[in-house]
Write a structure and sequence with these properties.
With 290 residues, the protein is α/β, with parallel strands linked by helices. The chain contains 10 helices and 8 strands. The chain has an 8-stranded parallel beta barrel with strand order 1-2-3-4-5-6-7-8, surrounded by 4 helices. Strand 2, helix 3 and strand 3 form a beta-alpha-beta unit. The radius of gyration is 18 Å and the shape is globular.
Length: 290
């Protein structure tokens, strides 16, 4: 079913994000996690996508099995970096054949090791180009886009970032999923600005439960998001006193409060980054009042 329709029929909700294990030996444990998290009755489960070959085949097979064998509505990530119209059309046709109706259209990051990668030389230079392509070639596909309450690292200004997201909506994005963040004021301000610009589509906030200080800093270094100073200081103090167990406890408490505040403030739902682990998301879902 189309996610845009699911959002209208059930809000607030929880949705989940998984990344395909590269090695198939890890798949049984992965699908065990999927089964455990089914108890949260997620609105959909997004599956990340390996650009330029990477885990593309895994994305398709895992999304297919999530829908067919586990009864969850998949949202497949699709990046355009390094892709041609032919490759994208083949992948989207495969999704249709598997009766997968939802795609999150992303530009993607430069290939690893390519410091001077030129997006201007690509057939698809922006996520907006990919969204437009999908809407024209696969009009029955429900397309979502990414949003950045903290501006994308490459954006010259907050307004430029908002303008780009507004263009995604005009090109056909029916909903938006945000990058992770920790200050809810950023989200609510962001949504208000988009609405003022005429981009009134559901904006689903992404929430990352912090399970250890090391993993949190690594993930944040990849996406450019920031931890508020007081929260970071509290995490570091907790680590000094009680190690990762204390960090986990503090991180879960923060994630539950953040998610509840988002839902209470009018967010359509919360999108939990699972890191392919069940325990944190089960704890948040069990405590969240929706």
């Amino acid at each position: 079913m189309r996610i845009s329709e699911l959002i209208r029929s059930k809000s607030p909700f929880i949705s989940l994000e998984f990344f395909p294990p590269k090695e198939q030996e890890a798949w049984p444990a992965f699908f065990d996690v999927v089964d455990k998290l089914k108890s949260l009755d997620p609105l959909f489960a997004s599956v990340t996508y390996g650009a330029g070959g990477g885990t593309q085949d895994n994305t398709l097979e895992i999304a297919t099995r999530i829908k067919r064998d586990h009864g969850l509505e998949p949202l497949t990530h699709l990046t355009s970096v390094g892709a041609s119209s032919e490759k994208l059309e083949n992948f989207l046709s495969s999704l249709q054949d598997a009766e997968i109706e939802n795609v999150l259209a992303l530009r993607g990051d430069p290939p690893r090791g390519c410091d001077n990668f030129d997006f201007g030389s690509q057939e698809f230079q922006h996520a907006t180009d990919l969204i437009s392509f999908i809407r024209k070639r696969f009009p029955d596909m429900c397309v979502g886009g990414a949003a950045y309450p903290e501006p994308h690292p490459e954006s010259p200004s907050i307004q430029a970032d908002l303008d780009m997201v507004g263009l995604k909506v005009r090109e056909g994005a029916e909903f938006l999923v945000t990058q992770l963040f920790f200050d809810n004021r950023l989200y609510f301000d962001y949504v208000a600005r988009l609405k003022a610009m005429g981009s009134d589509v559901p904006v689903i906030p992404g929430v990352l439960p912090i399970m250890s200080l090391k993993s949190a800093k690594f993930i944040l270094s990849l996406c450019g998001a920031a931890i508020p100073g007081k929260f970071l200081s509290a995490l570091e103090k907790a680590h000094e006193k009680g190690g990762d167990d204390a960090v986990y406890e503090l991180g879960m408490d923060y994630a539950v409060r953040q998610a509840q505040e988002l839902v209470d403030g009018g967010a359509p739902g919360v999108h939990l980054y699972t890191l392919n682990r069940a325990e944190a998301c089960l704890e948040i879902g069990g405590k969240l009042k929706i």
